[in-house]
Write a structure and sequence with these properties.
Length: 144
């Protein structure tokens, strides 16, 4: 007779998370914790490493290249996996270097992004800024 009966009053798990922030030195760590929690809720834990690494790179780019360091982050559950978007008001679009200088400490971010996600891109926004986005699909993630 004793058994688990799910509460009819429990709220549904949201399928997206949005935040607006001014990026600081500790922002990426806080965002990684939020991502980890949502991927657990969504039962998409195999995507954790790729989503955390790629998001950290996009947030680091805001910190380095956007003068006011303000951005909006969207974490979105999709049927195939996850999409992350980082939007800022800075008009300069990121450019991927065709050659990597082995002595340089920077310039590898978009190359790294392309190796850990399934798709990524940049879309100009109507206000003159941009959205850098990526998608990670559960079908192509490594299994534990």
């Amino acid at each position: 007779m004793n058994g688990y009966f799910p509460s009819i009053y429990a709220p549904p798990i949201p399928t997206q998370y949005r935040m607006t922030l001014t990026v600081g030195t500790h922002s990426a760590g806080h965002i990684r914790r939020i991502i980890r929690r949502f991927l657990e809720y969504w039962e998409l834990e195999p995507l954790t490493d790729a989503v955390e690494l790629a998001t950290t790179e996009l947030i680091a780019n805001v910190y380095r290249h956007v003068p006011d360091r303000r951005c909006k982050l969207l974490l979105l559950k999709r049927p195939e996996g996850v999409r992350v978007e980082v939007t800022d008001d800075h008009p300069e679009l990121p450019a991927q270097s065709l050659t990597l200088d082995p002595e340089s400490e920077t310039g590898r971010g978009l190359f790294l992004l392309g190796t850990v996600v399934d798709k990524w891109g940049v879309s100009p926004t109507p206000g003159g800024g941009k959205t850098v986005w990526f998608e990670c699909d559960i079908a192509s993630s490594p299994r534990p």
